[in-house]
Amino acid sequence: DINRHFPHVLDLGANACNIARALTSPPEPSSAPLHTRLSHLTSADESRTLLHRDADLPFNDLLPSHSRITLPPSDMPFPFAPRSFDAVLSSLSMHWVNNLPHYLSQVNAILKPDSPFLAAMLGGDSLYELRTSLQLADLDRRGGISTHVSPLADVRDMGGLLTRAGFKMLTVDVDDIIIEYPDTFALMVDLQAMGESNAALTREQSGLRREVLLANEGIYRELHADGKDRIPATFRIIYMIGWTEGEGQPKPEPRGSGQVNLADVLGGGGSPGEGGER
After folding, report:
1. DSSP characters for 118-141?
2. CA atoms within 13 A on the CB side of 264
3. pTM for this structure?
4. In Å, how far are 38, 39, 242 from 161, measured between CA atoms?
5. Concatenated DSSP letters for the chain?
6. Closest to 175 measured CA to CA, from 125, 132, 241
7. Each residue of 216-273: pLDDT tens digit?
8. Mean pLDDT for the chain overall
9. So what's the pLDDT on residue 100?
10. Contact 174, 126 (CB under 8 A)
11. Residues with Cβ < 8 Å from 82, sequence gap 6 or more?
């Protein structure tokens, strides 16, 4: 937990202000809602319709101060002044960003010194079951492979991208959430309802053919259902925290300044040639 008060917090890629709603609910029955630890929340998203969808719901009245801002496309500069936020949050929206290095650099620029960026995004092996079965179905029915699932960043990439953007004291972790569906058709309907349909420019504009869909259903069950009636779909969530540089933060000592030999601590210390060559 970060034990401090945040005067101005930005929810970047706010969707329908889901974080704003969550902040008004106590994380535990005995604790206060998290919105009591901030003074103003700015929710920002590219879709004005989605951003204002729940503007009349009761949770809006519980926030101490709340504003909504429509963002330009993700490849355009943010409409915020440098060093204007005490924290930036992002929940399950960054997988739609085409230029992650530029995006993260902008996030770093709008944060005040010694301020956190906390994010969760879909990535890595998300929907790997659907990817593999669609590829095999394409090969079987059409003799080639088309792009059916948008590309996603891997957890191994995110630490390097955060460092490149100027963030310090990084924490990156993953969590696999497995949802069961009655069939692949229900899975695709759910993805479409979530607004997570394939948006790759290289996708086939006419959509999936009937024979590919039917082949995909059989291959998916054969590879991933393990004989069960329902099929699993994996959503990999990448969690990350990065801090902008600031005074008082712990910093690593210069290389070569250590006074203790790690080999002595772990055992087997000594110089080469003592007690045998190493």
Report:
1. EEEEE-TTTTHHHHHHHHHHHHHH
2. 6
3. 0.83
4. 28, 30, 11
5. ---S-EEEEEEET-TTTHHHHHHTS-SSTTS--GGGGEEEEEEEES-HHHHTTTTTSTHHHHSSSEEEEEPPPTTSPPSS-TT-BSEEEEES-GGG-S-HHHHHHHHHHHBPTT-EEEEEEE-TTTTHHHHHHHHHHHHHHHSS----S-----HHHHHHHHHHTT-EEEEEEEEEEEEEESSHHHHHHHHHHTT-----TTS-TT---HHHHHHHHHHHHHHHSTT-SSEEEEEEEEEEEEE---TT---PPPTT---S-HHHHHS--S-TBTTB--
6. 125
7. 999 999 999 988 999 999 999 999 999 999 887 777 677 777 777 777 777 765 555 5
8. 88
9. 92
10. no
11. 109, 110
Chain length of the chain: 278
Distance CA 121, CA 124 (A): 10
Record the tokens describing residue 2, joined without a space: 């970060």
Q: Which residues contact 276 (CB under 8 A, 6 or more apart)?
A: none
User: Rounded distance, CA 93 to CA 15, Å?
Assistant: 8
Q: CA 214: distance to chain centroid?
A: 32
Interatomic CA distance for residues 250 and 64, integer angstroms: 33
Q: Which two tokens mark 195?
A: 């607004």
30, two tokens: 């005995």
CB 147 within 8 A of CB 198: yes
pLDDT tens digits for range 71-108 = 998 788 999 999 999 999 999 999 989 899 999 999 99
Residues 16 and 51: their CA atoms lie apart, in Å, by 5
Q: Which two tokens stand for residue 119?
A: 């994010």
- Comparing CA positions, the residue from 38, 1, 47 lying closest to residue 20 is 38
**Residue recorded with tokens 């909504």:** 68
